[in-house]
UniProtKB/TrEMBL annotation:
Superkingdom: Bacteria
Basic and acidic residues: bias regions: 33-52
Pfam family, one: DUF4169
Chain positions covered by the region annotation Disordered: 21-66
InterPro entries assigned: DUF4169 (IPR025227)
Natural source organism: Gluconacetobacter asukensis
Name of the molecule in the record: DUF4169 family protein
């Protein structure tokens, strides 16, 4: 004989499991310490400054007219 399953409870269990999976993913993506966020921000600033410093002048500046 088959086991009787309460569909309402089964749906709730499934929803809880999905929410737990989403929460785990968010913790992995956003659960960083302040030091890690600061380090990443500093690295991004350093890369931006490096790229800005290596930028070629525009066409008018390169020709000596501007």
């Amino acid at each position: 004989m088959a086991e009787i399953v309460n569909l309402r409870l089964a749906r709730k269990r499934k929803a809880r499991a999905e929410q737990a999976a989403v929460a785990a993913t968010n913790r992995a993506l956003h659960g960083r310490t302040a030091a890690e966020r600061d380090r990443d921000r500093q690295e991004a600033d350093r890369a931006r400054r490096t790229l800005d410093g290596a930028r070629l002048p525009s066409g008018t500046e390169r020709d000596g007219q501007g």
